[in-house]
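Memo to structure team: turn this sequence into structure tokens by end of day. - J.P.
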Amino acid sequence: MTDEITPFTIAVPQRDLDDLAARLANTRWPDEIDGVGWGLGTPLGYLQELAEYWRLRYDWRAHEERLNGFPGFLTNLDGANVHFLHARSPEPAAIPLVLTHGWPGSIVEFLDVIGPLSDPRAYGGDPEDAFHVVVPSLPGFGFSGPTTEADWGPDRIAEAWPVLMSRLGYERFGLHGGDWGALVSRQVGVGCPERVIGAHLTMLPSAVPTTERGQSVQSGQDELGYAMIQATRPQTLAYGLTDSPAGQLGWLVEKFKSFSDSRDVPDEAIDRDDLLTNVMLYWLTGTANSSSRIYAAPGRAWGAEPPKSSVPTGVAVFPKDTGLPIRRLAERTDNVVHWSTPDRGGHFPGLEVPDLLIEDLRTFFRPLR
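Reply from structure team:
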């Protein structure tokens, strides 16, 4: 095991794309009760239409080229091969920034923000707002998977990110994350506060009111079934998701519908091709199982009081997100110096409202530079 960082270019064999098309064409579809809509999960008609678009019109090669438009690398962190994008800024005042996704997301969440954050001058912004942008795939996700150990939860990942930043030559850095990425980013600040310039989060579970059973009052039990399955029986679930692209698609897009600022279908809020590129990073890498295992990794019980964080923390509360944090609760455990309430967007702001996320990141980090 070495500290080596090697360039990595995504190059999916054509046989994998042909196999995907054949599986989609031969999907065995389930029945459906009339009139249930999204009430029991992803509707049959919507998924059939989306799967047909995926098979006949979606162009993976174009999106593969887009992903490869950012410098990609692999390195081994604590026994896991981790894939990451790294866009160094041309600006001398740039500060390092790690963007961390969650589930059911991927590095696709940040493709629209990397350019404006790393080279604001080229996008009509202030060059003083520049960042060196690092976008890792969580261990077990995409080209950082599958993992071979069961304990790749947020605490272990939070120990790996500072190692990655040291290898890249960055002593101090900022952090941003949503979903699991928020938990990881916050925990990096708890573990090595002296290295963290600030942590910008879009989710803070310790600041969300919960029921006596530890469930988010806002999310409700009907929105947590996926998490309970992935936390207890990810292996059983993985057989269907790994064998059936329609199954993988239905499992992921249902949460994009529930957690985004959409009314009828998720692609009202998120570009359809971006949704499918995100699904492709699960399908092509066979990481349905290892990505689900993040829910089963040992760690603190959901709703348990977390260790306090002293690092400057910014929280962006997008209105259609799930489990919206409350500031007075956040201030019990975190050093909150920035709190924003954008007027639109949900759980995936990098995909839904990248302009608002970019501006909020710039606003938060300006006084911390």
